From TrEMBL:
Keywords: Aminotransferase, Pyridoxal phosphate, Transferase
Enzymatic reactions: L-leucine + 2-oxoglutarate = 4-methyl-2-oxopentanoate + L-glutamate; L-isoleucine + 2-oxoglutarate = (S)-3-methyl-2-oxopentanoate + L-glutamate; L-valine + 2-oxoglutarate = 3-methyl-2-oxobutanoate + L-glutamate
Record-stated family: Belongs to the class-IV pyridoxal-phosphate-dependent aminotransferase family.
InterPro entries with a match to the protein in the record: Aminotrans_IV, Aminotrans_IV_CS, Aminotransferase-like, BCAT-like_C, BCAT-like_N, Class-IV_PLP-Dep_Aminotrnsfr
Pathway: Amino-acid biosynthesis; L-leucine biosynthesis; L-leucine from 3-methyl-2-oxobutanoate: step 4/4; Amino-acid biosynthesis; L-valine biosynthesis; L-valine from pyruvate: step 4/4; Amino-acid biosynthesis; L-isoleucine biosynthesis; L-isoleucine from 2-oxobutanoate: step 4/4
Enzyme class: transferase
GO molecular function terms noted in the UniProt entry: branched-chain-amino-acid transaminase activity
Organism per entry: Mangrovibacterium marinum
SUPFAM superfamilies per the UniProt record, alphabetical: D-aminoacid aminotransferase-like PLP-dependent enzymes
Cofactor: pyridoxal 5'-phosphate
Extent of the signal sequence: none
Protein name: branched-chain-amino-acid transaminase
CC per GO annotation: cytosol
Amino acid sequence: MTNIPIYIERGELKKTPVSGFQDEQAVQIYEVLRIVDSKLLFFSDHYARFCHSCALLQIPVRVNEVEFKRQLRLLIQANKLINANVKVELNILSDKSELFRMYVVPHQYPTAEQYRWGVAVGLLHAERQNPQAKVAQHSVREKANQAIARNNWYEVLLVDHNQCITEGSRSNVFFIRDGVFYTAKAEQVLGGITRKYIIECINRLGFGYVEAPIRVSELAQYDAAFISGTSPKVLPIAQIEEHAYQLDNKPLRQLMADFDRFIEESLH
């Protein structure tokens, strides 16, 4: 899974490779945290969402917040991590046993050119079974990966049965029209932590913010668009299939700068 030498399983340091298991009935709850300058970004939010996902599936949380952070810091120290993404996963196996572990995962942070010129994304007709829980849904991820590779896209946006865009396969998505930011309703998407703070930044900057259906048939009506997430932060979209978007949109660029400042202030 990674060439980083150390991972943690059930609270203990182990040498990679991360041990695999074959259990098609297993349920996996997970979080991916970003490490910046050896510090945890938005740690408390990730732990709270982890607990929320467990509650939605009626799974008890056996690792408290202090222990959760201790293990993450141990992983950072053991691998001398500076900038990285770490996946924390709780696997509930078919025999009801639990496997809790954390390890470094490959990341793809956007380049300076991609932040300047934006990225191309596509559409994928797929829906998450439980969008508000951070649960691995392999069929959607596999379809997304195939579409991204086949078309050389950066990401795909999920389209539901109502022909509305909800979120990206591993990101949230926002649109801008006349200085107002639009995104899907909160109950239709995974409550992304980056999404939460982007909304706070939008409000702080004084822009309008609306949660409403984003219809595929209305994509041409928006001025600009961007995806957000742990790795991309705020990443402009240059094109969604045949629809092109502004890259020098002033509200978008103001938000990008403000969110970068916010991250610097939020490192633990």
